[in-house]
Amino acid sequence: MARTDGAETRHHTLYLEIRRNLLRGSFPAGHRFKLSKLSSELGVSVTVAREALTRLSEQGLVVLEPNKGFSVPDFTDAEINDVAFVRKEIESIAVRRSIEQGGIEWEARVVAAHHQLAVSPNAALDEDPEANEAWTNAHRAFHEVCAAACGSPRLLAFRIQLYDQSEIIRQMAKLHRGRQRDVAGEHAAIAEAVVARNADKAVQLLHTHIERTRLSCLESWAAAQPPG
């Protein structure tokens, strides 16, 4: 039987709501989703809730285990390293191609996205949820626009999937104390290299930026573990 427009809308709404909360770091690592609770909270059927979580699991944002159901990923060090490694490679290809192919309108979008990021306070989720969400959205938009002119929808889709996975890791790790960095300075340097059309420098800065995030996440992950 074909899905009705109403069911499709409810499925998409629930999918977006769970995804938004995942990317905000609202769920702790290992959190198990209860289909009955989700369905009752948002007024959808258990089937719709299951389909939304299945879609998220296909994107690597939720884990589906036989006989256990859906849960938030509890990333291992190896998984954090792997996400960072693949993201560096994919992001670099997209940014390099964008520098080669992007026009003046794309340059203006990069400048505007960086300005929005630069003026957004970078607050922790538990300190200021609204400011955290505003910075998170500006951060996503900046990295997205730097890659936007690559000319490959498949490359962009894969980049978004990897970015989302790394964002869940970053938000979870941010709940704990990590190493200090000049994140604003890192973004400013990337924006400057991109607008200057210096692909080699932009890629090198991007690699360093993602690598520092990886190390910060690993440090925070380790600090959050109980002794022994």
UniProtKB/TrEMBL annotation:
Keywords from the UniProt entry: DNA-binding, Transcription, Transcription regulation
Domain HTH gntR-type: 8-75
PROSITE patterns: HTH_GNTR
UniProt keyword Ubl conjugation present: no
InterPro entries: GntR_C (IPR011711), TF_FadR/GntR_C (IPR008920), Tscrpt_reg_HTH_GntR (IPR000524), WH-like_DNA-bd_sf (IPR036388), WH_DNA-bd_sf (IPR036390)
Domain of life assignment: Bacteria
Presence of keyword Repressor: no
An example molecular function term from Gene Ontology annotations: DNA binding
Name of the featured protein: GntR family transcriptional regulator
